[in-house]
Automatic annotation (TrEMBL):
It comes from the Bacteria. Residues 135-264 form the LpxI C-terminal domain. InterPro entries: LpxI (IPR053174), LpxI_C (IPR010415), LpxI_C_sf (IPR043167), LpxI_N (IPR041255). It comes from Anaeromyxobacter paludicola. Residues 4-131 form the LpxI N-terminal domain. This is DUF1009 domain-containing protein. The lineage of its organism: Bacteria, Pseudomonadati, Myxococcota, Myxococcia, Myxococcales.
């Protein structure tokens, strides 16, 4: 089987990917960002190199030395931290100089092009995570009201419209009014901002950007997402079915049921 390179950001999805890939017989060598990536990843991979944010050249060297013939990019890197904390090396500066619009997808495609030029084509991680994609319908015991279903469908249209601008993947709506759209602050901050305006009962929708490059930045939700919804008294979490990764589904559904949050796949 192949040796896969994993460029790991935050959250549990890098760990879940590594576990699935190794069960399928692959070796996994990874790079992890200091103070961002979960240290538990070390126990789930065959080799791990810690790097600072911005060290693209070191990432390439570590994966090639580990024997990787391709790479996947999984887990978040907070956009605010990237612009505030990253100390880009020459390789990353070269990518940034070639990117005309510095949105999420543009930068990621630029990084992917650099990796491919270095002999590390970036591949789609979804085949290793197919059993973790959100199904259509209601995931827990609680169903949205008819009005909340309307908000969810409107939110899906809005999220796709925002995605076309390469901003974010998440929107918050209530009464068919857009309360917040995700930008550089990230999903949780978007939910908190919209939830504060809603004063309870908000519908949070997360969707794939139209034309999304499935090699990276697929939308993902997990128990931590539900915790933020519960914090602001939101009523519904709606995600695009068949395209959104659901982390720790049993725990997510359990926590959502306890918080009286409906979780649905659209």
């Amino acid at each position: 089987m192949a040796t896969l390179g994993l460029i790991a950001g935050s959250g549990r999805f890098p760990i879940l990917f590594a576990e699935s890939a190794r069960r399928a017989g692959h070796r996994v060598v990874a790079t992890a960002f200091q103070s961002i990536t979960d240290p538990a990843l070390e126990g789930a991979v065959d080799g791990l190199t810690w790097v600072k944010l911005g060290q693209l050249g070191r990432i390439v060297s570590a994966l090639r030395q580990g024997g990787a013939g391709s790479a996947v990019m999984l887990g978040g890197v907070p956009k605010a931290r990237f612009f505030r904390d990253a100390l880009p090396d020459a390789a990353l500066l070269g990518v940034v100089a070639r990117v005309a619009v510095r949105g999420d997808d543009s930068l990621l495609r630029g990084i992917a092009a650099h990796l491919e030029a270095e002999g590390l084509p970036v591949v789609d991680p979804a085949p290793f995570l197919a059993d973790r994609l959100a199904p259509a319908g209601v995931l827990g015991r609680r169903s949205p009201t008819p009005e909340q279903w309307e908000d969810a469908r409107y939110g899906l249209e809005l999220a796709r419209a925002v995605g076309r601008l390469d901003l974010g993947q998440t929107v918050v709506v209530k009464g068919r009014a857009a309360l917040a759209v995700e930008a550089i602050e990230g999903t949780d901050a978007c939910i908190r901002r919209g939830g504060a305006l809603a004063k309870g009962g908000a519908v949070v929708v997360k969707a794939v950007k139209p034309g999304q490059d499935r090699r990276f930045d697929l939308p993902a939700v997990g128990p931590d997402t539900v915790a933020v919804l519960a914090e602001v008294g939101a009523a519904v979490l709606a995600v695009e079915a068949g395209a959104t990764l659901v982390m720790d589904r049993e725990a997510l559904v359990r926590d959502a049921d306890r918080a009286r949050v409906a979780v649905v796949g659209l």
